[in-house]
Amino acid sequence: MKKAKIQEKKTNESVKIASPYNSIRIEKDVISVLRSRRLVQGKKVEEFERSLSEYIGCKNTICLNSGTAALHTAFLALKTLRAEKSEVITTPLSFAATANAVIHAGCKPVFVDIDEDTFNINPSLIEDKINERTLALEPVDIYGLPSDLREIRRIASSKKIPVVEDAAEAIGATYAGKKIGSFSTLSCFSTYATKNLHTAEGGFVTTDDDELARLIRLFRNQGQVSRYNQTVLGYNFRMIEICAAIGLGQLPILDDLNRRRRENAQYLMEKLMKIDSIGFQSVSDPKSHAWYMFALTLDESKASITRDSLVAKLKEKGVEADVAWPTPIHLQPYFSETFGFRRGDFPIAEKVCKKVFQLPIQPFLTRKDLNRIIEVVRESLP
Fold it and tell me: How far apart are alpha carbons 250 and 177 in whole angstroms?
């Protein structure tokens, strides 16, 4: 396994929640792409797809220009084969793209509440929402922690329903000894600038189903089977060569970067767990988690400070804390107005959204940075 060099940080610079990786190799490869004059969907993208398939252990990888496009085309491919189906069962605790992609594919999101400890979709609530209109199940690997995929796949198999895994935050995570991306019918990843593996902007889909892969490749390129030969309605969802070059420069060291994230998270957890107002996402196997985000919860009644006030105070003191997400999807104005969702529909997700926040664990933090985070958190809690 190759190891990444820690990037130098300016003195007194705030501790960032994310720090996109760069290297001399990446800069050289980007310049090489520019000089090649082949900028879109060329040899670099093909190489990136092959390398991702080898890393994950899947048959097909299709690169696109965003994680949302990955989800969108995954549902379009299923909808093409199962046109009579129109509902996707998913979680309200996620970024809106999880549900937006369902709607763009002509379907309706059907939400199921979450497990209060892991923050992932609660499999025990899924079967009650399945009916003759169900197109797919869409678990989300929240903050990089894989969902209960074995139970979700059992339910899906018994009902003959495919699983579209929103693995946007879970590149490098594992489940049952396999890399995420090799377990579900379709797995969709984001390579946005903050992700563990970034391409500035982008995403990809993995699948062992050749027909689904063929359809997704059609949809990403305006529905063309060859130049100016359009057989279906498609989109311009192509990944550019520069993005693939950026990703290829990170893939050999991804496991090392994720290991650093895990070690940073475990160090912070060990030092902060004695604060009785703070809790953590429940993780049974730290090595299975991609650690895209280090999620904590604040018991405001014990802390005598609100979650939002704490996050603001941490930022003021140079620790870039964050809240993802302060409002569950079903209570976003568009979703409540369009589908009639109301407060109280999914109480666990609503409860978690009010108390969850994140601290930096990105792989280029030093021990000094981590100790600074710990000190500032302790100082900020009355």
Answer: 22
Q: How far is CA 354 from the centre of its chain?
A: 20
- Establish if 1 belongs to a structural domain: no
Give the chain's domain count: 2
| C-alpha span between 275 and 269 (Å, rounded) | 10
Alpha carbon distance 71, 204 (integer Å): 9
Residue 17 located in a structural domain = no
CB contact at 8 A, 158 and 122: no
Q: How far apart are CA 114 and CA 350, in angstroms?
A: 10
Range of the domain at 203: 24-252
Question: How does pLDDT run along the chain (382 residues), one tens digit per residue?
Answer: 567 665 555 556 899 999 999 999 999 999 999 999 889 889 999 999 999 999 999 999 999 999 999 999 999 999 999 999 999 999 999 999 999 999 999 999 999 999 999 999 999 999 999 999 999 999 999 999 999 999 999 999 999 999 999 999 999 999 999 999 999 999 999 999 999 999 999 999 999 999 999 999 999 999 999 999 999 999 999 999 999 999 999 999 999 999 999 999 999 999 999 999 999 999 999 999 999 999 999 999 999 999 999 999 999 999 999 999 999 999 999 999 999 999 999 999 999 999 999 999 999 999 999 999 999 999 999 7
Three-state secondary-structure class, residue 141: coil
pTM (2 decimals)? 0.96
What DSSP element (H or E) covers 210?
Answer: helix 210-220
| 3 state SS of 359 | strand
* CA dist list (Å): 138 to 215, 342, 366: 19, 21, 36
User: How large is the angle between the packed helices 43-56 and 241-248, nearest 10 degrees?
Assistant: 40
**In terms of domains, do 72 and 110 share one?**
yes
Q: Where are the beta strands (DSSP E) in 140-277?
A: 164-166, 174-175, 178-179, 186-190, 203-207, 224-226, 229-230
- 40 by DSSP, 3-state: which? strand
206 contacts 58 by C-beta, under 8 angstroms: yes
Helices 67-81 + 97-104 axis angle, to 10: 40
Instruction: Please name the amino acid found at residue 82.
Output: R
8 A C-beta contact, residue 249 and residue 29? yes
Out of 197, 231, 252, pick the residue that ends a domain: 252
Residue 63's CB is within 10 A of a number of other CB atoms, namely 29
